[in-house]
Amino acid sequence: MNMLSRYSLLLVILFLSGSVWANKCLYVSSYHEGYEWDDGILTSIRATLGDKCTLEVFYLDSKRNPDAAWSKWQAREALKLIENSKPNIIIAADDNASRYLVMPYLKNKEIPVVFCGINWSMDEYGYPYRNATGMVEVAPVKALIRQLKTVKPKIRRGVFLSSDVLSEHKDFRHYKRVFADHKIELDSIFVDNFREWRKKYREAQRYDFIFLGNNAGINDWYTSEAERIVDQYARKISVTTYKWMLPYVAMAFTKLPEEQGNWAAKVALSILDGEDPALIPVVHNRRWDMWLNTRIIKRLDIKMPYLLYKRAKHY
Amino acid sequence: MFKNKIHIPFKDLALILGIALFLLVVITGLLLWKDYQAAEIQFHQESNRLYDDLSKNLSDINAILNGMMALHNAVDIVDAEQFSLYSHEMLNVYPNINAIKLLTRVEHEFRNEFSAKMREDGYPTFDIYQGDRKKVGEWKTATSRTIYYPVTAIEPLEPGKIIEMGFDQYSVPLFRKAIDHAIKTGEAVSVVDTGSVNAINNYMVFKPIYAGRVLPQDESERKAQNLYMVSVVIRSTDLLSNHGIIPDLDIAIYNNDHVSGEHDQLVSTVSPAARVEGLLPFAEFSFNRPVIKGGQSLLLTVTQALGAKIVNLRMVAIIVVVWGAFVSLILYIVNTHHGTRKERQESLHAWQWEKERADVTLHSLADAVITTNQQAVVEYMNPVAERLTGWKIDEAKGRGVEDVFRLINEADEKNLTCPVHECIRRGVMKQSDQDISLIHRNNEYLSIDYSIAPMYGQNNMVLGAVLVFQDVGSSRMLSKLLSYQAAHDDLTGLYNRREFERRLSRSIERVFKFNEHYILFYMDLDQFKVVNDTCGHMGGDLVLRQIAELVSSLIRERETFARLGGDEFGILLEGYTLDEALVVANEILEAIRKYRFHWSGKIFEIGVSIGIVDIDSGMQSISNIMGYADAACYMAKELSGNNIQVYQIDDADYKQRKDQMKWVQRITQAFADSRFILYAQQIVSLQDDADEHFEILMRMLDDNGEIIIPQEYIIAAERYGSMQDIDRWVIRNAFILINKYVSAMKYDSSLPVRSFAINLSGQSLSSSSAMEYVKQQLQDYPDIVRHVVFEITETAAISNLVSAQRFVSEFRGMGVKFSLDDFGTGVSSFNYLKNLNVDYLKIDGGFVREMMVDPVDYAMVKSIAHIGNVMGIKTIAEHTESMEIFENLREIGVDYAQGFCLHEPERLDKLV
Questions:
Q1: Which domains does chain A have, with CATH numbers?
Q2: For residues A140 and A255, what is the distance between their CA atoms, to the nearest angstrom?
Q3: Which of A164, A283, B128, B746 qualifies as a cystine partner to B142, CB 3.0-4.6 A?
Q4: Residues from chain A contacting residue B736 (CB–CB below 8 Å)
């Protein structure tokens, strides 16, 4: 073999070992670019996958377009993309990607699926499938109760105030059970517009504490007015598990989208390395951030335990 | 380099070699002894270090286990969350540790309850398993036993490790013995795992955790009070983290099995090959020492066979270096006299080869190459240069390069001086920096790019130049074509909108900086739609081309004239006053008014509406100026068309147009913020229809959550083309709610049959994509088809008659009903009614509202009711605002009535 042939062969080998055989991953998000939670998941996926997989992204955009017909339409578009692009693996983030894409079209198919961000229970999507595994999303409610009790040891009855959407009802069922385990009664109020939220927030002051659920789903949410209402009417300690609800509560225990993304990407790489998805158990998230809203704490004149005050992030 | 021969007699040579050999033997012996002593010291140092490593690792494991005990004592019950946090930190501190696991003791009677709790707590696929997960058929739900110790938490959480979740370690006999022994003694117990799940030859330590804060005293209590086992795993190869400094040490580690008392081999690096290689069998170093930490007991043995590896490195090095140098010297001298002749031959060959290679390279180049001497006389040309210039090398050689390489500027076709001379004179590189052509010997032009470099000799003297050039004709043509296409409209050849806006932007800057004067015309053809509808797109395209030519002939070539889209054109006049521009505008208006378009024997007249903006330095944004011009044009059109309007900043009508534009932004924002809500108003039956009918209405919320009625924004949406988006939103969301109601009807027979009327705009009626969208939505909700009525206004239907007929016919075929809204407002309403196959007529509210006071309105309502009755079309009276009107409508024979006195609109989601 002469020199030229050797170099040509080397070039061919380099070429084949590079772009041609690079794995393709498709990330299907339930929401849209710019939605804080979703962006966090994607950033983490990108960081973990690095150059081991070429990542394509598709948004179902179901938060801004809540009707089922839209999501079904988008899911069909995603399916077309899958058929054309032929990714090696699909990462499906949050409930609607599983509901509208994975369950109807990808269940037990050849292509492996890693899901993440599914709230509490995956039963309604019929998981586990032969070709799917992933991470469910649970709120750090035990930690929240533990710290809430260090601040207000006598609490007995609280209220969960949230938008009237399916995932919040789903969350509430779990919260109620966990609070009950700690001998705390948790009522619920679900609203579908801001006016109602404003009214119910004031009424909720008769409880020992207020647990604020998501405002996504309250389409006329009015940020500055909500902050004003809280500043004016808050009398009781309030908590949340959503970072974007932090302006309206005293304490927050927030889930980290990066954990979901990191796990999904790690599992995806493991499957691309030959692991059988059916053998990887579904797990739940375990990390959270602890936040204190000093503005509200000061307003409510709450004395925070020193350790909690030092350990939490301050908003 | 040796130039002379050196002669050494052979007998002297032998003596030198003999002495050298003797010295080498003596030195080697001394070095061997020294190496032996050094190796022994190093062996013991290394063995002690290995022992320290091992000892440290066992201490680390104990530290983790004791920490876990402390955690347990601190919080009573260690839950998975705390375990995870603690273990995560420990793994950061002790990176050698492979995994930390929590094994929860589960009695058989609580097994199902426990598994259910784990599933509820975030491990939805949790079960207690046994067997080997990697082997098909062997991984299964654990068989019934009295006690299980499944893995319930594991760190680090990695896909390769999490597969152990739920694995009952008690199902493995080796682990069962260790767990039992650990519980019995309360101590840590170590085992060597040689093949359980995901573990090959791992060192594992189990430590029991009991209820309460004090270690239970006797064995039976310890058995009863055990809650968990903590298991720490370390790969056997990681036990000796620093192993590897002495490569040929034979190391073995044995675990002292507490139960059997035997020593299980954990690590072995013994290399049989190393023993065989030993040259000195009497010399072997060895080291044996137990490591005992807590309940862990290991035995470390280290041996090293002495052999070639100890001595060979230095010895071989010395022998090779000294003998190599010596022999090389002798051989070099012997061969020297052959050297010089051979070098000369090789040098000649190399020179010839280099020359040949240079020739081949130059001949093979795709670029043309000409070399010249210091006087710019051609010395060499490659075949490509011959082809591009038309000169053969034999003819060109000796000629001045300017005869062969003649250039012109493509822009003005002027001859250029030959750049080679300048390159030689100044001694600098030159490259083509404009579009130039080479003149071929046959006088044809050829687009080229060139570069010229001076050739330097000794003393930095310029000896000549190398000229390299390429034929770039096709790429330059392509680039020109692309740049033309990017700036021009395909149909008319005028500038396109992008180029127009680019030039407008430049003009704004010049107005601002140099106080120059520009006038903008925004022109919209009148009655163009008639041509397009009647003659089809081919006819329409021809009109646009002819108008473009007509207007081009009326303005200076330097003006920017563009087609902005559809039948809209823009002109940017440079240096005109407003009065001068008005003269031009009137000429254009007059020319287009006189223009006649002939098609298939028919003659069409076209008009134009012109909006004019006198650009001043206060107008800094393209979108503002285009907006002003558009608004002015729209005003001109509203003033019966074929008109000119000059934009004036204080004009109230312009403000209204600007307000409308703001509405478009507010509508877009409202979509983004989901601030639209659906309402419904009942259409009450005046006869005996048991079914219920509703009209779906849309409401928008402002930033304060207050309702905005549609009249305020629908006009803007219609004007600026947002109606299709609104229609789609209404259809999508209305269908969801209608489907909800229809689904409920299936299970509750007491619910009345309802139909829901949805308004469709003219824009949607004439759009094929809207039609496809509706079709797709109806496919998604097939059950609702018979409950849907589309309302189209009479004016929208008339202005898009062909599209409306197609739309109605397509969906009526599927079962959808249609209602003609605002009926009676058009001039020939009854005439058009025959062409539209609708189910309902909605009598325009203007007639109904006044029917009790205006006899003409009364007659109109009555006539429509009569016509509807004759044609079998149901009639609906809008704006029924009193019960008096309601009763009269019944008497006249109107079928339905709708109005605030009958039903105030309410939220559709509440209604269904």
A1: 3-139+257-287 (3.40.50.2300), 141-240 (3.40.50.2300)
A2: 7
A3: B128
A4: 67-69
- The full DSSP string for B279-340 is S-TT-EEEEEEEEEETTEEEEEEEEEE-SHHHHHHHHHHHHHHHHHHHHHHHHHHHHHHHHH
Q: How many CB pairs under 8 A join A and B?
A: 89
Neighbouring residues of B265: CB distance < 8 A, sequence distance ≥ 6:
B192, B252, B253, B254
Contact A20, A75 (CB under 8 A): no
Q: Per residue in B414-473, pLDDT tens?
A: 888 999 999 998 888 888 888 899 999 988 889 999 999 999 887 788 889 999 999 888
User: What is the Cα–Cα distance from B515 to B527, expressed in whole angstroms?
Assistant: 38
Task: Tell me how far apart the alpha carbons of residues B315 and B321 are, in angstroms, rounded to a whole number.
Answer: 10
Q: What is the pLDDT of residues B228-256, one digit of tens each?
A: 899 999 887 777 765 554 567 788 888 87
**pLDDT cut 90: percent of chain A above it:** 50
**B359, B365 in Cβ contact below 8 A?**
no
Answer whether B160 touches A (CB < 8 Å).
yes
CA-wise closest residue to B131 among B182, B166, B158, B105 = B166
Cα-Cα-Cα-Cα dihedral sign, residues B700, B706, B711, B715: negative
Q: Which domains does chain B have, with CATH numbers?
A: 10-306 (3.30.450.350), 367-474 (3.30.450.20), 488-649 (3.30.70.270), 673-911 (3.20.20.450)
Q: Is some CB atom of chain B closer than 8 A to the CB atom of A194?
A: yes
- Record: contact B736-A195, CB cut-off 8 A: no
Which residue does chain B place closest to A174, by CA atoms? B120
pLDDT in tens, B159-205: 888 888 899 999 988 889 889 989 988 888 888 877 644 445 788 89
Judge: B705–A73 Cβ closer than 8 Å, yes or no: no
Q: Residue B296 has which token pair?
A: 């862990």
Name which of A120, A127, A281 is nearest B162 (Cβ-Cβ): A281
Q: Which of A219, A271, A284 to mutate to test the interface with B (most CBs of B within 10 A)?
A: A219
User: What letter does residue A18 receive in the DSSP assignment?
Assistant: T
Residue of chain A minimizing CA distance to B673: A219
Which residues in chain B have Cβ-Cβ distances shorter than 8 Å to A123?
124
Query: Which residues in chain A are contacts of B731 at CB distance < 8 A?
Result: none
Chain B residues within 8 A of A194 when measuring between CB atoms: 705
In angstroms, the CA B82 to CA B90 distance is 12
